[in-house]
Every structure is written in structure tokens, then in C-alpha cells.
Specification:
Shape: globular
Distance between the termini: 75 Å
Number of helices: 6
Number of domains: 1
Low-confidence stretches: 1-32
Largest sheet: 9 strands, antiparallel
Strand order of the largest sheet: 2-1-9-8-7-6-5-4-3
Strand content: 35-45%
Number of strands: 9
Order of helices and strands: HHHEEHHHEEEEEEE
């Protein structure tokens, strides 16, 4: 009887393994894709250490923009919205169509569009990479919605063509609580 239990166990194990989806092989192209999360973590560390001077403009609807030049910036907080645009987790990619295009100057444009029935936060992401894979520009639209809160943001980040470091960024958005007015805002910063 013990012999049959052992065979039954091996049979169940083989059946379980046979039902698993095979992992697709990683191609050279997938390994070379741009990792936004890693890039932003490296930028946060460098900016926190350097504390560069930043010219920042913040405006809310109906108000004149407040413009300030400062080197006192919490980069962890400041760049969080751009990290939210990262689609580096393979489980997220199933919610998007992806298009790549090589431009005349050798740059690569990669666009992700959210599928119609998907509920992922990023609705659109466009990365413009230099021929050597360095980020030149990021454009994205993010949307959060539940019964209490609604938020929509358009974000843009540009880099210095020589160094690849962040040179400027913009965030434009609207947020609304279920029982309140909507708030429109714009943030722009140049390093």
C-alpha cells in the first residue's frame, strides 16, 4: 500500500507541474528594455546628494503660480509620481499594448497603451530613449478612481542629453473627492 501512495504522490506532482504555464525565454531585447524604477532610484540618490538649485512653479486653479528657487527639495517625494508610471513588473504588461519605433536619429520611442477593460493606473506611457538606451523623455497619463476619490495626471520628464540626468519635469492634474470640488493643479520644475 505504501508503494501505491508513493506513486500517487509522484503522479500528483507531475500533474501539477504539467499544468503550470511555461516561462517564456528572456530575449536580448527584453533584457535591454529601460527600467524606469531603477533609473529614478539612482536619480533620487544623486539629487539628494547634490542638492541642485531648482526653479519650481506651482499653480492651482484660479491662482497665480507660486515660483520659487530652492535647493531644499525632498527628491523621494518629488519623483514618486514618476515611479507610479513604471511598468517594469511583468504582471502589469499584460494590461497594455506596446509599440516600438526607431526614429530617424536612431532614438527609440516605446509606447504603452492600456487595454480598454484594464483597471491599471497608467493609461498611457511613452518613453523616448537615445540610441544607446538612455532616457531622453517620458510622457504619461495616470488615472485613479474609486467611489471616494478621482485623480487624473499628465506627467512629463526630460533629461539632459549629455548626462542623462533629469533636467525638467511637469505634472498637470485634477483631483476630486466624492463630496467636494475638483482641484486643478500644475507643477513645473527646471534643474
Amino acid at each position: 500500500m505504501a508503494k501505491y501512495k508513493h506513486l500517487l504522490f509522484v503522479g500528483l506532482l507531475l500533474a501539477t507541474v504539467a499544468c503550470e504555464r511555461p516561462v517564456p525565454p528572456v530575449s536580448d531585447k527584453a533584457e535591454a528594455s529601460f527600467n524606469l524604477t531603477t533609473y529614478l532610484q539612482e536619480q533620487k540618490q544623486a539629487l539628494q546628494a547634490e542638492q541642485p538649485m531648482v526653479l519650481k512653479s506651482v499653480a492651482t486653479q484660479g491662482q497665480e503660480p507660486e515660483i520659487k528657487e530652492t535647493s531644499n527639495v525632498d527628491w523621494e517625494d518629488e519623483l514618486t509620481v514618476f515611479e507610479q508610471a513604471g511598468l517594469n513588473r511583468p504582471s502589469l504588461l499584460e494590461y497594455y499594448t506596446k509599440q516600438e519605433q526607431v526614429l530617424a536619429d536612431g532614438s527609440i520611442a516605446i509606447e504603452y497603451n492600456r487595454l480598454e477593460d484594464a483597471e491599471a493606473q497608467v493609461t498611457y506611457l511613452r518613453l523616448l530613449l537615445s540610441p544607446n538606451g538612455q532616457l531622453k523623455q517620458l510622457n504619461a497619463r495616470l488615472q485613479d478612481q474609486n467611489i471616494i476619490f478621482y485623480s487624473r495626471r499628465s506627467i512629463q520628464l526630460s533629461t539632459d542629453p549629455q548626462t542623462g540626468d533629469i533636467a525638467s519635469y511637469r505634472v498637470e492634474g485634477v483631483q476630486k473627492m466624492a463630496f467636494g470640488d475638483s482641484l486643478h493643479y500644475k507643477v513645473a520644475a527646471n534643474l
